């Protein structure tokens, strides 16, 4: 996704949120929606710039690898690969 | 006002489409690595697991008829542990949604739209999902009813058109290394898609009061239908393509549909299978996004779940783009780590919650005709809380 795409999509998302949820009674909605959007924008910039950034899937692999090792041993056992 | 209610039949069809979703296309090669030509035995062995899981979810619903998991978890295990578990589920569904988006773009880029960048496919697909989720669960359920018929029709049509290509000898020998190989093949199936059925604990409270008694029965029917279709597809895959080719093919069912050749009149209908698969994956993704948005809006006390649809989808797309390094990484992750992560959320936590709730004799409020809290959607009106909270 090009820089133009990121900027346009973020601008469109912000505009939709602010326009749809305007007024004092929706202030909380707007703030939290924009906060979540900011997290998404950060990830979009990271993907575009190809930075190294925390990848949640790598966390999962790291956390579950001690449990998976014995299972992997069992799954791979008993096969003749020749 | 959005008086969102779905019927037990609609719920059954949603479960069927969710189960078929991305699993139908990706699972055969993942499970086939372990079970080989005994893939259909693996699918049969999955039936008791599906049945048990659906019983657990239904029992939780019977105990807390008007509450989703996010609501009763705080009553069962306390506020802070409950919040941690809720956050964990939020993370789980965001990860699942990103995986689904990645699957669809990966499939389209390798099979049909070879030159199209992944982000374009992701954004295009997610825009449809944003629209679908914004329309609400009732609209999704009605869409599911239409897709259910077309999906069944397509699967049966594919099976009929492939009759002249079937070689049952390829299914032999059956269980030549005993039951061990089919049981090993069950490992990826547990995570993908069986334990992903946990979305039901967030959707079942939306089933209308009159249908609650027969809900358990319909869920089991859906489970049986899913297993029956899986066995049928497994038999077709192995007998048409052979186990070796099935394992090598990343999208085995799509590749199997390429074999259709009826007197050289009906050929190249694999896109039909792909279209149905895109439809089922839309339902799966829309349900996941719906659950995420509902959880987030309840957690942050927003006035409507619709507020969070665009931000959540904006988060899902970049996460899906950075999810995997390559296809090998994806295969490893989906058939190894994902199963454990999924079993934790889909089986272990609901089971422990049910046991603790039964032990402590905890029960929610009985079903009333009021609108469920998560679908209150009057601008400016706070989310209605159940009296037990």
How would you explain this protein's 3D organization?
The complex is a heterodimer of chains A (82) and B (389). Chain A is an all-alpha fold and 82 residues long. Chain A has three helices and no strands. The N and C termini of chain A lie far apart (45 Å). The mean pLDDT of chain A is 84. Chain B has 389 residues and is mostly helical. Chain B has a two-stranded antiparallel sheet. In chain B, α5 (79-111) packs across α6 (118-135) and α6 crosses α13 (270-299). The longest helix of chain B has 33 residues, at 79-111. The two termini of chain B are 23 Å apart. Chains A and B meet through α1, α2 and α3 of A and α8, α14 and α16 of B.
Give me the oligomer status: heterodimer
Number of strand elements of chain B: 2
- Separation, N- and C-terminal Cα atoms of chain A: 45 Å
Give the class of chain B from helix and strand content and strand pairing. mainly alpha
Helix content of chain A: over 70%
Based on helices, strands and strand pairing, what is the structural class of chain A? mainly alpha
Features:
heterodimer; A: about 80 residues; mainly alpha; elongated; B: about 400 residues; two-stranded antiparallel ribbon; disordered C terminus
Write the layout of secondary structure elements.
The complex is a heterodimer of chains A (82) and B (389).
Chain A: H1 3-20, H2 27-49, H3 56-76
Helix pairs in contact in A: 1-2
Chain B: H1 8-20, H2 23-35, H3 39-63, H4 69-77, H5 79-111, H6 118-135, H7 137-161, H8 180-191, H9 200-203, H10 212-241, H11 243-248, H12 252-257, E1 261-262, E2 266-267, H13 270-299, H14 309-321, H15 327-335, H16 337-360
Antiparallel strand pairs in B: 1-2
Helix pairs in contact in B: 1-7, 1-10, 1-13, 2-8, 3-8, 3-10, 3-16, 4-5, 4-16, 5-6, 5-13, 5-14, 6-13, 6-14, 7-13, 8-16
């Amino acid at each position: 996704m090009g820089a133009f795409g990121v900027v346009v999509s973020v601008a469109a998302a912000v505009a939709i949120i602010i326009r749809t949820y305007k007024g004092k009674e929706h202030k909380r909605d707007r703030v939290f929606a924009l906060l979540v959007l900011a997290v998404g924008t950060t990830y979009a910039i990271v993907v575009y710039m190809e930075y190294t950034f925390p990848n949640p899937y790598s966390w999962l692999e790291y956390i579950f690898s001690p449990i998976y090792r014995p299972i992997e041993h069992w799954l791979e056992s008993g096969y003749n690969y020749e | 006002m959005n008086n969102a209610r779905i019927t037990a039949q609609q719920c059954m069809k949603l479960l069927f489409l969710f189960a078929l979703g991305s699993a139908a296309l990706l699972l055969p090669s993942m499970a086939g690595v372990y079970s080989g030509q005994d893939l259909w035995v693996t699918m049969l062995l999955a039936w008791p697991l599906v049945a048990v899981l659906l019983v657990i979810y239904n029992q939780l619903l019977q105990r807390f008829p008007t509450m989703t998991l996010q609501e009763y978890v705080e009553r069962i295990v306390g506020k802070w542990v409950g919040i941690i578990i809720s956050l964990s589920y939020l993370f789980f569904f965001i990860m699942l949604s990103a995986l689904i988006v990645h699957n669809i773009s990966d499939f389209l880029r390798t099979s049909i739209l070879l030159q199209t960048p992944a982000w374009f496919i992701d954004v295009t697909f997610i825009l449809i999902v944003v629209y679908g989720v914004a329309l609400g669960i009732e609209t999704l359920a009605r869409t599911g009813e239409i897709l259910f018929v077309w999906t069944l029709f397509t699967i049966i049509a594919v099976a009929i058109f492939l009759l002249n290509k079937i070689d049952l000898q390829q299914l032999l020998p059956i269980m030549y290394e005993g039951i061990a190989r089919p049981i090993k093949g069950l490992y990826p199936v547990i995570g993908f898609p069986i334990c992903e059925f946990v979305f039901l604990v967030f959707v079942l409270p939306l089933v209308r009061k009159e249908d609650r008694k027969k809900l358990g029965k319909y869920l089991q029917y859906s489970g049986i239908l899913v297993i029956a279709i899986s066995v049928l597809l497994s038999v077709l895959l192995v007998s048409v393509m052979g186990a070796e080719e099935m394992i090598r093919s990343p999208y085995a069912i799509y590749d199997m549909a390429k074999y259709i050749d009826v007197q050289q009149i009906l050929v190249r209908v694999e896109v039909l299978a792909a279209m149905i698969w895109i439809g089922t994956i839309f339902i799966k993704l829309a349900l996941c996004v719906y659950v995420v948005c509902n959880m987030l809006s309840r957690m942050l006390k927003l006035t409507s779940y619709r507020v969070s649809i665009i931000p959540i989808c904006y988060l899902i797309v970049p996460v899906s783009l950075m999810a995997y390094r390559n296809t090998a990484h994806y295969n490893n992750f989906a058939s190894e780590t994902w199963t454990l992560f999924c079993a934790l959320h889909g089986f272990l936590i609901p089971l422990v919650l049910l046991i603790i709730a039964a032990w402590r004799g905890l029960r929610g409020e009985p079903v009333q005709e009021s609108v469920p809290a998560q679908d209150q959607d009057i601008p400016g009106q706070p989310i209605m809380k159940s009296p037990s909270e």
